[in-house]
Amino acid sequence: MENQFGVTGFIFNNDHQWEKFGEGIRRKILGYEKEIMLVAVEFKKNAAANIHKHPHKQISYLVKGSFEVNINNEKKIMKAGDVFLVLPNLDHGVTALEDSMLIDVFTPYREDFI
Predict the structure, then answer these.
(1) By the 8 A CB rule, do 72 and 90 touch?
(2) Which of 4, 62, 93, 100 is deepest in the core (most CB within 10 A)?
(3) pTM of the complete model
(4) Burial track 61-82 (b if 16+ CB lie within 10 A, e otherwise)
């Protein structure tokens, strides 16, 4: 089922396509509406989401692999099963230490991704 903000109800992975999102990075927007968005992101080893910031809250679950995560100039090595939270307008970025995947949840949705 779709509305003006995207898919609601049941969401099937195979109904969505991967899109390139930088060198060695691809993402798949799985579902969203005005207040929330879920995005799967795959990284090849050494691929990086460079330091950036946005007005959205973000929580990320590391599905597989490992990353160096930088939030507001604090760096941590994180692995599958770990989670990080980024509050609005904080500088943050990740570098994949191996082929890796994470799930990002944003609130509100990332209009710039659509």
Answers:
(1) yes
(2) 100
(3) 0.90
(4) ebeebbbebbbeeeeeebeeee
Q: How far apart are CA 95 and CA 66, in angstroms?
A: 9
Tokens of 99: 């082929």
- The domain of 94 spans 2-113
Q: What whole-number distance in Å separates Cα of residue 15 and Cα of residue 90? A: 33
The CATH number of the domain holding residue 54 is 2.60.120.10
Q: What's the pLDDT at 5?
A: 54
pLDDT of residue 7: 57
- For the chain, the maximum distance between any two Cα atoms, rounded to a whole number of angstroms, is 41
- Residues 98, 99, 105, 106, CA torsion sign: positive
Tell which residue, 3, 41, 2, 48, has the closest CA to residue 23: 48
Number of domains into which the chain is organized:
1
Whether 30 shows a pLDDT value over 50: the answer reads yes
The distance of Cα 29 from the centroid of its chain, to the nearest Å, equals 9
Q: Which amino acid is at 99?
A: D
Element (H, E) at 55: none
